[in-house]
Design goal:
The protein has 301 residues and is of the alpha/beta class. It is built from twelve helices and nine strands. It binds phosphoric acid mono(formamide)ester and norvaline. It is an enzyme of class 2 (transferase).
């Protein structure tokens, strides 16, 4: 039987996702109480990073250690992956020795190929198209601060990229309205938008989009791999900064999120990220708890 993978949020049903988010908060409580809980004793997670990371690496590695298991950091620089060993072969070999594999890479097709040839669960830790682990943490964070997100208005301000695509999937699974405010030419994938047209609206005016929002989310203008476009994007995203004026258009109790790392003064004004309505630190911490819930779901069921 092929293993259960987590390549996009849609690998979970709506009920499974809701259950996983509740479990993430329970695991957070267990951890904060100092209770030892080690369901993954002697289990090993391989972590393949083809892009930089702080939160993803620390949360998966710490999570595996807290669960009694172990995490292996693998970079293309010092594995044969960087010397052109085929993904199919790497998947067969690595998965024969570990219990799960986490991958951060560029092309989403790479992770799909790896999963196809892997004998153990594969977790998407960010591709150019999706960042589902971040959405687990974001949704957990919203729920912990404001309760159910069902029926709420979420506004994505910025690039229609990996994070935005995962927000579209979350809107479908958790039943909220997503307004994407992006410059022309930076819209999310048209097929994905068409598939979820009952949930997603695209606007090109961030301030109009922000009206009566319950949650405002943004991300860097230039993602990893797009460093050469930084200058052009700074110009193209003029008017798409989340600042105090934009936040004032949202509902009074609206939250602000950012997956981090952030560039204060570019996509977000320092006053917004450092304001009490900003839950970015809880959001980052919840990567740990949400991914522990995911590991438990994939490896202990
Ligand atoms: N948000 C996020 O994935 O952070 P890292 O790039 O630091 O892992
Ligand atoms: N969109 C960003 C997210 C980083 C966590 C990137 O892909 O670089």
């Amino acid at each position: 039987m092929s293993p259960r993978h987590f390549l996009t949020l849609k690998d979970l049903s709506s009920d499974e996702l809701k259950q996983l988010l509740l479990r993430a908060s329970e695991l957070k409580k267990i951890h904060k109480e100092g209770t030892q809980f080690q369901p993954l004793k002697n289990r090993v997670l391989a972590m393949i990073f083809e892009k930089s990371s702080t939160r993803t690496r620390v949360s998966f590695e710490a999570g595996m250690a807290q669960f009694g298991g172990h995490a292996l950091f693998l970079s293309p620089r010092d594995t044969q992956l960087g010397r052109g060993e085929p993904i199919e072969d790497s998947a067969r070999v690595i998965s024969s020795m570990v219990d799960a594999v986490m991958i951060r890479t560029f092309d989403h097709a790479t992770i799909e190929t790896f999963a196809k040839y892997s004998s153990v669960p594969v977790i998407n830790a960010l591709t150019d198209d999706y960042h589902p682990c971040q959405l687990l943490a974001d949704m957990q964070t919203y729920q912990e601060h404001r309760g159910s997100i069902e029926g709420k208005k979420v506004v994505w301000v910025g690039d229609g990229n990996n994070m935005c695509h995962s927000y579209i999937n979350a809107a479908a699974l958790l039943d909220f309205q997503l307004v994407v405010a992006c410059p022309k030419g930076y819209e999310p994938n048209a097929d994905l938008v068409a598939e979820h047209q009952d949930r997603v609206t695209i606007l090109h005016d961030a301030h109009e989009a922000a009206r009566e929002a319950d949650l405002i989310v943004t991300d860097v203008f230039a993602s990893m791999g797009q460093e050469d476009e930084q200058e052009k994007r700074l110009k193209d995203f003029d008017g798409f900064q989340v600042n105090t004026e934009l936040m004032a258009k949202a509902n009074k109790d609206a939250l602000f999120m950012h997956c981090l790392p952030a560039h204060r003064g570019e996509e977000v004004e320092a006053a917004v990220i450092d304001n009490p309505d900003s839950v970015v630190w809880d959001e980052a911490e919840n990567r740990l708890h949400a991914q522990k819930a995911l590991l438990e779901f994939l490896l202990c069921n």
